[in-house]
Amino acid sequence: MNSIIFEVVLVVVSTIVIVIGVGLLLALPIKWTWNVIMPYLFGLPVLSWGKAWCLYFLCGCLLKASNINSSSKK
Questions:
Q1: C-alpha dihedral sign at 13, 29, 40, 55
Q2: What's the pTM?
Q3: Where are the alpha helices (DSSP H) in 1-74?
Q4: Which residue has the higher pLDDT, 67 or 36?
């Protein structure tokens, strides 16, 4: 019984670590693009990795694509 609980906890923790790692990896292009263009064009401050990750999360929440099928509205 304890080994099953341990395996479930291990899977949950591993999934959380992988999701956070992928999110941080996907925030890198946002950070690089922002830090190259925005301070030069608009005088905005550079982003740290954490702020780029937050911006990635915010964009994902606000601009999430909907899966609406227009043919089902006939």
A1: negative
A2: 0.63
A3: 2-42, 49-62
A4: 36
